[in-house]
């Protein structure tokens, strides 16, 4: 059965709705596939089955397609995506740097990519050595005492860090009640604190975009278990008072969680231990160049100070007399370790760790220093060359990202969102918008170190021209953007009001 | 350095534009108490060739399942991945894109995830599914938290057939939320009574089929009892290929279904990254954790997709969010989806049959080996055998012969000496008769 799929009349000006390289593509379920199959399987062995009473009765409803149909389907879908491979992605706080292909190659090495998690430990010594090598890079770069390798992403690493804080406070006799979080924090910080049974108290920012020390002092008490602080903060600024903040937190008997989302600004230059942090997660899918994959997988290994390291979760790799040990249970952990539990099945995001290790070995300590320097230089270059046409709420220098607010759009009828959508037509992924919440209509740009001056200059020229257009009263131009994308602005209200979260067969007429 | 495009002339011109003399000047906000120029006791940069050689050196110290007869399961199942899957997920437009927050330039990822959500609903027999979680263990923890939100109750009952890592993660992630979990003892014989324990103060009961010990269950009666008491039934599935042969949990009356998706599309990769599938009933949609892709229209009236119902999520709701999850497992979900698309209805159900019959044939052959007794009861592609000596050293002895013969249960349950002789054995489509011959011969020798 093949049915012709008719698309709504398209503004493309073509009869099919297709536009050259951008082709309309139906859902897998609408491609007319029934009996096809894209895989040739061995025949089942001739033995009776044991499924009586448990067997599936009806059809599942999956379409059946040949391999070329499936390959073309996904190739066409891929062509509707923006990507770092194809263009500049100045997405603040996301560190969209180039993802080296070497990382992908080594992660697929036979003997690494194909290992089963439950092989005898004697048969995976090389894998444990690789995990240990990655841990050594993280400890070396941060100067911290211990690291939990298993968290699956940044927010999961935060959870790991705050759970260790809670475990350490409980070990001292009182879990306490509050986690302090600056107003400018990423939403995962308060969500994480809540998951750990803490109430969240916000710390306001000063007029210059940093933690208000007086407000912090006023909120610190023996009910406070810890502070979660992103540094450089989400305004792109280094928290100059970080040492004093750490001392104040420690004097109150609390712990200092440093959110490592912005570690790319500091790597190879500043040791986190020297800032007084007790815990920090590291997004391997940001700072260590592993691909974001359209939303994961990532990894969020979490480094700890001496005070928190004993509470790190299971499992962990330990060097033993007969090679590497994989500590999977409390019984194995020994008396000095007090793991707060387990965060993930098996041993963490091994494939992501391998990619990050390849990156660390490729960059080396000299490369990391150059990379953070170039990342910060690129951001300051954007700030310097755009601040006369956009509006910069805080004095520079910035670190690895430059923050603007929407002051320059006042009375133009153009919003931050409109400007972002116009940038899409110009071939750029928009910057982070409306975050952080501490400035109005925020535009947060993070160029990373893997962009050339030529790319930045072209982007700057485009933004300047768009800002001039907005100020010249061409609001309609912006409201209509984007015009050139596979889809134009989508109705998010409709999607939320009448949620359609899956395809369903069309009802019979 | 091959990943850094700026050269010294660029840097000089850019510093000029910024109005500073050196890159170090840009770091002037780093306080002076922080030691300047810390020493990093780490190597300098290396070329591609040197890095590849280092990875090959790691690899040769491992016994690769690609080169050894492998019968390992225990929550991670080795299947053949069609070449097209890896080729497609390595397209830069999928591999190197961000979370699809800008829908006009992310329709590829969004449509693929909408298809994934649909596939998950079809496999599990459920009404709605999210765009993925990290893995099944963390998805189970999210299910327990969700059940507590839905029922406003704080107690969770966990079957002894649930994968011990899932249980450990649930205990850890709910540990500070005021939820109390009762974990039943490991149940290799399938004798625990769950129906009799369902009470009206429970938020949910968590079960698994096929269970950790391989046993199949029908939870229809349990679901009825749960619903009579206002309790949610959460069903975990560690091996999604089983859904090609078995009654889907949705038909049994499950309220939440969690599946470990790593069997399809992704290499084992020592257990991660994988992907957690999460599905539920439509009435609980707004209590779901994680990202959701929904259908809508663009300003020209054309169908398209967006991330939706984000008012549940941390970037909007902050401490009141349904979960703290942000980055999840998008690319693994894509790989799962492509593999399933290639298989289709006929391929997927046949793959399930091939797996089940491989395991049935292997169980029969192992039952003829002296000192090996398969546990009775129905199974899919994994079953437990009782050996006449402790399983861990037997597994080591098999490995010394180049065979990855099974998983000793004691590795998960060291505190239960009565499980010491129990070994989990899995057979999939990847195991040919030569593999069976090798395992039978080696086991016969090791147990002699």
How does this structure look, described?
The complex is a heterodimer of chains A (509) and B (448). With 509 residues, chain A is α/β, with parallel strands linked by helices. Chain A folds into two domains: 103-359, Aspartate Aminotransferase, domain 2 (3-Layer(aba) Sandwich); 381-494, Aspartate Aminotransferase, domain 1 (Alpha-Beta Complex). Chain A contains 13 helices and twelve strands. In chain A, the strands form three sheets. Chain A has a seven-stranded mixed beta sheet with strand order 1-7-6-5-4-2-3, sandwiched between helices. Chain A has a three-stranded antiparallel beta sheet with strand order 10-12-11. In chain A, strands 8-9 form a two-stranded antiparallel sheet. In chain A, helix 7 (242-251) links the parallel strand 4 and strand 5 (255-259). By secondary structure, chain B is α/β, with parallel strands linked by helices. Chain B has two domains: 65-81 and 344-446, Aspartate Aminotransferase, domain 1; 83-339, Aspartate Aminotransferase, domain 2, CATH 3.40.640.10. A seven-stranded mixed beta sheet of chain B has the order 1-7-6-5-4-2-3, with helices on both faces. Chain B has a four-stranded antiparallel beta sheet with strand order 10-11-13-12. In chain B, strands 8-9 form a two-stranded antiparallel ribbon. In chain B, helix 4 (83-89) packs antiparallel against helix 12. The relative contact order of chain B is 0.14. The chains are: A alpha/beta (509), B alpha/beta (448).
Question: What is the gist of this entry?
Answer:
The complex is a heterodimer of chains A (509) and B (448). With 509 residues, chain A is of the alpha/beta class.
Task: Explain the layout of strands and helices.
The complex is a heterodimer of chains A (509) and B (448).
Chain A: H1 67-78, H2 101-107, H3 125-142, E1 146-148, H4 154-171, E2 178-182, H5 188-195, E3 199-203, H6 213-219, E4 224-230, H7 242-251, E5 255-259, E6 279-281, E7 302-304, E8 316-320, E9 323-327, H8 330-333, H9 350-386, E10 402-404, H10 416-425, E11 432-433, E12 443-445, H11 453-471, H12 475-479, H13 492-497
Parallel strand pairs in A: 2-3, 2-4, 4-5, 5-6
Antiparallel strand pairs in A: 1-7, 6-7, 8-9, 10-12, 11-12
Helix pairs in contact in A: 2-9, 3-9, 4-5, 9-11
Chain B: H1 8-18, H2 23-26, H3 48-60, H4 83-89, H5 92-95, H6 107-124, E1 128-129, H7 136-151, E2 155-158, H8 164-173, E3 180-183, E4 202-208, H9 220-228, E5 232-237, H10 249-252, E6 256-260, E7 276-280, E8 293-297, E9 303-307, H11 314-317, H12 330-367, E10 372-374, E11 382-387, H13 391-400, E12 407-408, E13 422-426, H14 433-446
Parallel strand pairs in B: 2-3, 2-4, 4-5, 5-6
Antiparallel strand pairs in B: 1-7, 6-7, 8-9, 10-11, 11-13, 12-13
Helix pairs in contact in B: 4-12, 6-12, 7-8
């Amino acid at each position: 059965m093949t049915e012709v799929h008719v698309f709504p009349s398209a503004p493309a000006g073509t009869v099919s709705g297709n536009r050259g390289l951008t082709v309309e593509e139906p859902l897998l379920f609408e491609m007319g596939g029934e009996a096809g199959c894209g895989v040739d399987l061995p025949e089942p062995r001739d033995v009776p089955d044991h499924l009586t009473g448990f067997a599936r009765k009806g059809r599942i409803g999956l379409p059946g397609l040949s391999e070329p149909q499936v390959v073309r389907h996904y190739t066409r879908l891929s062509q509707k995506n923006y990507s770092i491979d194809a263009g500049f992605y100045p997405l603040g706080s996301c560190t969209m740097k180039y993802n080296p292909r070497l990382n992908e190659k080594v992660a697929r090495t036979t003997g690494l990519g194909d290992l089963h998690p439950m092989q005898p430990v004697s048969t995976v010594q090389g894998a444990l050595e690789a995990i240990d090598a990655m841990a050594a890079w993280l400890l070396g770069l941060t100067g911290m005492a211990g690291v939990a390798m298993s968290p699956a992403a940044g927010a999961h690493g935060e959870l790991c860090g705050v759970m260790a804080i809670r475990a350490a406070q409980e070990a001292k006799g009182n879990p306490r009640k509050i986690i302090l979080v600056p107003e400018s924090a990423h939403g995962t910080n308060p969500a994480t604190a809540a998951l750990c049974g803490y109430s969240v108290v916000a710390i306001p920012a000063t007029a210059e975009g940093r933690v208000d020390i007086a407000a912090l002092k006023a909120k610190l008490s023996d009910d406070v278990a810890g502070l979660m602080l992103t540094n450089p903060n989400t305004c792109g600024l280094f928290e100059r008072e970080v040492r004093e903040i750490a001392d104040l937190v420690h004097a109150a008997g609390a712990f200092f969680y440093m959110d490592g989302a912005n570690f790319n600004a500091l790597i190879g230059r500043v040791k986190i231990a020297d800032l007084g942090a007790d815990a920090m997660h590291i997004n391997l899918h940001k700072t260590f160049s592993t691909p974001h994959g359209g939303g994961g997988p990532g990894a969020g290994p979490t480094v700890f100070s001496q005070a928190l390291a004993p509470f790190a979760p299971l499992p962990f790799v330990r060097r033993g007399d007969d090679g590497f040990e994989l500590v999977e249970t409390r019984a194995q952990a020994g008396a000095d370790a007090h793991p707060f539990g387990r965060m993930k099945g098996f041993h963490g995001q091994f494939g992501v760790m391998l990619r990050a290790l390849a990156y660390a070995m490729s960059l080396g300590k000299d490369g990391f220093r150059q990379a953070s320097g170039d990342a910060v230089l690129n951001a300051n270059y954007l700030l310097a060359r755009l601040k006369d046409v956009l509006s910069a709420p805080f004095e520079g220098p910035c670190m690895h990202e430059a923050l603007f607010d929407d002051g320059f759009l006042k009375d133009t009828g153009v919003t931050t969102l409109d400007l972002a959508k116009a940038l899409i037509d110009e071939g750029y992924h928009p910057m982070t918008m409306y975050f952080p919440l501490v400035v109005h209509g925020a535009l947060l740009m993070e160029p990373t170190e893997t962009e050339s001056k030529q790319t930045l200059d072209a982007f700057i020229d485009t933004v300047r021209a768009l800002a001039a257009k907005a100020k010249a009263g061409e609001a309609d131009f912006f409201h209509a953007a984007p015009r050139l994308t596979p889809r134009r602005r989508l109705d998010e209200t409709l999607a939320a009001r009448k949620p359609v979260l899956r395809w369903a067969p069309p009802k019979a007429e | 350095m091959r990943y850094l495009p700026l050269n010294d002339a660029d840097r000089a011109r850019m510093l000029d534009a910024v109005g500073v003399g050196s890159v170090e000047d840009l770091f002037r906000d780093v306080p002076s108490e922080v030691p300047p120029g810390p020493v990093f006791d780490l190597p300098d940069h290396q070329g591609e060739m040197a890095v590849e050689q280092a990875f090959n050196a790691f690899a040769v110290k491992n016994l690769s399942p690609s080169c050894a007869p492998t019968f390992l399961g225990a929550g991670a199942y080795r299947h053949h991945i069609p070449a097209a899957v890896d080729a497609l997920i390595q397209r830069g437009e999928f591999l190197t894109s961000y979370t699809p927050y800008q829908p006009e330039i992310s329709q590829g990822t969004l449509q693929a995830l909408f298809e994934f959500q649909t596939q998950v609903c079809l496999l599990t027999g459920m009404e709605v599914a999210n765009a993925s979680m990290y893995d099944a263990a963390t998805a189970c923890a999210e299910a327990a938290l969700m059940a507590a939100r839905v029922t406003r109750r704080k107690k969770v009952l966990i079957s002894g057939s649930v994968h011990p890592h899932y249980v450990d993660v649930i205990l850890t992630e709910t540990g500070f939320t005021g939820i109390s979990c009762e974990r039943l003892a490991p149940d290799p014989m399938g004798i625990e009574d769950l129906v009799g324990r369902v009470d009206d103060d429970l938020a949910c009961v968590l079960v698994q089929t096929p269970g950790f010990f391989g046993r199949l269950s029908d939870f229809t009666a349990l679901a009825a009892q749960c619903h009579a008491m206002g309790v949610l039934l959460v069903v975990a599935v560690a091996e999604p290929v089983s859904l090609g042969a078995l009654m889907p949990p949705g038909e049994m009356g499950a309220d939440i279904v969690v599946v470990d998706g790593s069997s399809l599309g992704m290499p084992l990769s020592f257990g991660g990254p994988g992907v957690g599938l999460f599905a539920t009933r439509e009435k609980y949609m707004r209590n779901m954790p994680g990202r959701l892709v929904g259908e809508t229209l663009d300003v020209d009236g054309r169908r398209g997709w967006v991330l939706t119902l984000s008012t549940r999520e941390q970037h909007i709701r902050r401490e009141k969010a349904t979960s703290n999850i942000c980055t999840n497992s998008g690319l693994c979900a894509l790989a799962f989806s492509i593999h399933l698309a290639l298989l289709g209805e006929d391929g997927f159900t046949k793959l399930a049959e091939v797996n089940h019959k491989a395991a049935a044939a292997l169980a029969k052959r192992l039952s003829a080996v002296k000192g090996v007794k398969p546990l009775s009861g129905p199974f899919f592609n994994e079953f437990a055998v009782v050996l006449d000596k402790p399983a861990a050293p037997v597994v080591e002895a098999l490995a010394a012969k180049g065979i990855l013969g099974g998983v000793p249960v004691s590795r998960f349950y060291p505190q239960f000496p009565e499980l010491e002789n129990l070994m989990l054995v899995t057979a999939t489509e990847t195991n040919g008769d030569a593999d069976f011959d090798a395992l039978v011969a080696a086991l016969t020798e090791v147990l002699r």
